[in-house]
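Posting this for the archive.
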Amino acid sequence: MANQEISKAFNLIFTYPIWRIEIDAKNKLIAIETRNPEDTFPYFNVITFEGTYVLQDFKAITREWVLGGIQCKKLILKKISNNSPIDAGIQVIDCYNPQHQETWFNYVFISLVDQGLLIRPKTVAQGQQLFLNIQSMSIESKNLITIKPYTSELVYPIIYNGEIPLFLKDFPIDGDIWINRVNDYFIWAFYEKQKNNHYQIRLVQSTREMLTESILAVSGLELKLFNIYFLIHGQIFLLTDNKREFVSYLV
């Protein structure tokens, strides 16, 4: 069993607070929707799994546009309205060449599927569905039976309900313990309370019998986060309390 150390992949601070995150695991790209708190205008970023910007602070057409997904190295935006989460408007942008983009104002985003989107004309209340091929940026009348569903590769840890191992008992654990298995190791995550009543997140790597490594991943949290982290292909991603910082570790 090879000894795999926990190492930091990146630590980025965005211009504005993070609202949404989507992942293109196949191409190792992360799309992040951020919003200016002064006027709620959205800006979109795309980074690699190494933390390198591919697209930075790409400004939306209007504030009603939100992140719909990222696939095939294409950033996918959809439009919402003040009264509904659905409105006519879809925009697809080439992450590496943002001048190469298409916008459809007469179609409604239905769902993300493999290699594309299911959409419908805004004049049709329901029923008719078309396939938007995001590789070619073209709308096709494709047989829906042949369309494969989109499968996310995000993995979230589960809460550990067993007896706490001896190698964890000396840590000042505050609340639940989360666990994932990554290759030959277990990854444990939990909160610790700091002296100033803030929290820090600790990651622990272990075999079944012994601790192999322990690091403080994030500190200075005023509150506990809804999701402690998510995992893709042996890489952990965490948000911090200010909602502008995004941190990642290889495990």
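The chain has a mean pLDDT of 93. The radius of gyration is 21 Å.
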